[in-house]
């Protein structure tokens, strides 16, 4: 009798753990931000009319930014996200590619489905020899 009871407990525990994983997995996978290389980002811009969203501070954006990118500092995402199109892929850019992942996650939580992070940020863009726009 003790053996059956132990087997039942093991079976119940296995079913419970499997159910929790099955329920949580879609949320976990959806929460991950896909990163793009510079070349992949350029392809996305050209083929799917993507948009670069620069989440660095305004002074850094003015000093050097990707042409036709939009400035939306991380601190302003919650209040200014409505200015972004939901029907275009968004490629979030920061200085080195770290802050853009968190910013892309915020945008996803605000209803933007097609959001990516530029791997290596603006520094990777510059190192690849891609043009930067400088505003005075």
TrEMBL record:
SMART domains for this protein: RHOD
Entry superkingdom: Bacteria
One example GO MF annotation: transferase activity
Keyword Transferase: yes
Regions crossing the membrane: none
Keyword check for Transferase: yes
Gene3D superfamilies membership: Rhodanese-like domain
Protein name as annotated: Rhodanese-related sulfurtransferase
């Amino acid at each position: 009798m003790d053996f059956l009871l132990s087997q039942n407990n093991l079976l119940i525990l296995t079913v419970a753990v499997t159910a929790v994983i099955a329920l949580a997995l879609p949320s976990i996978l959806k929460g991950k931000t896909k990163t793009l290389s510079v070349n992949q980002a350029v392809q996305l811009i050209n083929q799917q009319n993507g948009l670069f969203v620069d989440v660095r501070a305004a002074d850094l954006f003015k000093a050097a930014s990707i042409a036709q990118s939009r400035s939306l500092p991380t601190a302003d995402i919650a209040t200014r996200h409505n200015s972004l199109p939901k029907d275009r892929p968004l490629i979030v850019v920061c200085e080195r590619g770290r802050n853009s992942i968190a910013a892309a996650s915020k945008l996803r939580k605000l209803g933007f489905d097609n959001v990516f992070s530029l791997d290596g940020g603006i520094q990777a863009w510059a190192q690849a020899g891609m043009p930067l726009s400088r505003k005075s």
